[in-house]
Design a protein that fits this description.
It is a single chain. This protein has five helices and two strands; from the N terminus they run βααβααα. The model has no long low-confidence stretch (mean pLDDT 79). It has one domain. Helix 1 runs parallel beside helix 4. A two-stranded antiparallel ribbon has the order 1-2. The protein is α+β, with helices and mostly antiparallel strands.
Length: 132
């Protein structure tokens, strides 16, 4: 999804367990947590057609409650938030459950180096320091 500066935005508070927050933060505390959470939502929704088994919310966790130990406030595009809410509804889970899953999903993508690979693939040849 492309960012649009002119898009309508809204403030959202997302509560995660400390475990999910730590995975999302990558050991960096709460510095940049808002941006990392937004990136987690973008990454998660962007992979909706990936077919990866880890993408959908795990069935064995349905019906369980998330520990809401850490709150993250972020200003995000209204359309992105609506899409995320719609995906939670489609999967039959709460927004909090899906946000926690998205945080773990994103942390795994970062750890596996797939986020870096996506960034490199999106760059034009000259931006990577290569000759065209």
């Amino acid at each position: 999804m492309a960012r649009e500066d002119a898009a309508e935005k809204r403030w959202v508070t997302i509560a995660l367990s400390e475990l999910a927050f730590d995975a999302l933060a990558g050991g960096k505390g709460d510095v940049g947590a808002s941006l990392r959470m937004e990136n987690a939502l973008l990454c998660y929704l962007g992979d909706s057609d990936s077919g990866r088994p880890a993408w959908a919310y795990p069935g064995f966790l349905r019906g369980s409650e998330t520990r809401q130990e850490v709150e993250i406030e972020l200003e995000m595009r209204t359309d992105l938030w609506r899409e995320f809410e719609g995906e939670a509804t489609r999967q039959g889970v709460t927004v909090e459950q899906l946000a926690e899953h998205a945080a773990f999903y994103y942390a795994a993508e970062v750890d596996a180096g797939r986020v870096t690979q996506r960034i490199l693939e999106d760059l034009k040849p000259g931006e990577r320091g290569e000759s065209s």
